[in-house]
Write a structure and sequence with these properties.
This is ScyD/ScyE family protein. It comes from Arthrobacter yangruifuii. Keywords: Signal. InterPro entries: 6-blade_b-propeller_TolB-like (IPR011042), ScyD/ScyE-like (IPR048031). With 421 residues, the chain is mostly beta strands. The chain has one domain: Neuraminidase. It is 6% helix and 39% strand. The chain contains three helices and 28 strands. The longest helix is centred in the first third of the chain and has 15 residues. The protein is globular.
């Protein structure tokens, strides 16, 4: 017999109370409560600038922001005055990236990674690390090591249902495999979420969520399912694959906890440059079962969930932030911004990193290469920023701050903590 979730128990209790209560209206008629208003964007303020690819950040008390400057391989703290302080730096022996920033109890968690797509455990590095109030940096867990030992998405089969002929395979866009394949060993931790028993980590190479225990252990929380994408006829695709369905890798990009205690994950399909839409999944943290909440996003790279259950989604290549109102699966435009990547809620404000590919960073797949200049041009200075968006007054009271604040939702397998930054 299934256990009732805390949310269902609350609804059942409320229904029982409603039956017992006397009618509130003079005529004894009961009017169901109106749904809360859909969040609307208010004043927008830039709170930090000159950043190098802020793909992940956390907002702390007092307005400080810990941010992974991913293209520089460092983690910085943005002070109240807008200045930056170095918290941690990745090794310099090979090109490392930083991501997966979260905060709890005075400790900042982040990932250091390198060698993605090498599929070589000697060069594919994926570590979850932490830095405490005293500036001490330590490795919490070896995420890549777990991937090479367990390969959680090895249970998935990706690609075409049947191998395409050789003459057709030669015409396929880069990244589209001509034959079916099972999940490959590849680690790229990109997002983290603190909990009572450890840190939930979303790994974009693993296509899974794992729990990194404070004791260094790693275990699988959930594996995202393949995302079916049917190639349309025309639109630049080879005619030989028109109408064929491709099972794309789901590629998780962010993870948050909702007011129902579930985990919410954004997914950017591995074949997104072919037009496969991004999605949001709801994950049962006890069983790991994924449920599709919404789809149709253009480069879903970050999300935030408020106390009402509204889901904000950053669409990196759609140049907008969308919102999926609670109880629906339909994205609506929240705010147009350039190249948003990460989102965080704090109090009555939504924070977003924008212009994240500015300053000579990697291009969107499929984009044309810029012309080569002679002599080589100097690299452009970092030009990414973090903005604060005030939420409409009609929505106050429904906001929830994650990663840098209180995570006191229903207990689900020890993945929440009830702590404060």
């Amino acid at each position: 017999m299934k256990k009732s979730s805390p949310a269902l128990a609350v609804l059942a209790a409320a229904a029982a109370l409603g039956l017992m209560a006397s009618p509130a209206s003079a005529g004894g008629r009961h009017h169901p409560p109106s749904p809360p208003p859909v969040p609307a964007a208010g004043e927008v303020t830039t709170v930090a600038g000159g950043l190098a690819g802020p793909l992940s950040f956390a907002v702390g008390r007092g307005g400080t922001i810990d941010v992974a400057q991913s293209f520089a391989g460092i983690v910085s703290r943005v002070t109240n005055g807008g200045g930056t302080e170095l918290l941690a730096a990745a090794p310099q022996d090979q090109p490392y990236g930083t991501a997966s920033v979260s905060r709890t109890r005075g400790t900042t968690y982040f990932s250091v990674s390198a060698g993605q797509d090498s599929r070589d455990p000697a060069t594919n590095i994926g570590l979850l690390q932490s830095v405490d109030r005293n500036g001490t940096v330590r490795t919490v867990a070896d995420i890549a090591g777990y991937e090479y030992a367990a390969n959680p998405d090895g249970i998935n089969t990706y690609g075409f249902e049947e191998a395409v002929p050789a003459d057709c395979a030669a015409q396929l866009p880069e990244g589209i495999q001509p034959a079916p394949y099972t999940g490959l060993r590849d680690s790229n931790p990109v997002a983290s979420l603190p909990g009572r028993n450890g840190i939930v980590v979303a790994d974009a190479g693993m296509n899974a969520l794992v729990l990194a225990g404070y004791d260094g252990s790693v275990s699988t929380v959930a594996v995202l399912p393949p995302i079916p994408f049917t190639f349309p006829a025309g639109l630049g695709f080879p005619e030989c694959i028109g109408g064929l369905t491709y099972q794309a890798e789901p590629v998780p990009t962010d993870v948050e906890r909702g007011p129902d205690g579930a985990l919410y994950v954004t997914s950017l399909p591995g074949a997104f440059d072919a037009g496969a839409p991004g999605s949001v999944y709801r994950i049962n943290p006890v069983t790991g079962t994924p449920e599709l909440v919404a789809s149709g996003f253009v480069g879903a790279t970050g999300l935030a969930v408020n106390d009402n259950g509204d889901i904000f989604v950053a669409e990196l290549f759609g140049n907008r932030i969308s919102v999926v109102p609670a109880g629906t699966g339909t994205p609506q435009l929240f705010l147009e911004v350039n190249q948003p990547a990460a989102l965080e809620l704090r109090g009555d404000s939504l924070y977003a990193s924008v212009d994240v590919l500015a300053g000579g960073a990697p291009q969107e797949p499929g984009a044309e290469e810029p012309p080569v200049t002679e002599p080589p041009a100097e690299p452009a200075p970092p030009a990414s920023s973090i903005i604060r968006i005030e939420l409409d007054d009609n929505c106050r009271g429904y906001h929830h701050h994650h990663r840098g604040g209180h995570h006191g939702h229903a207990d689900n397998g020890g993945l929440n903590d009830g702590s404060e930054d």
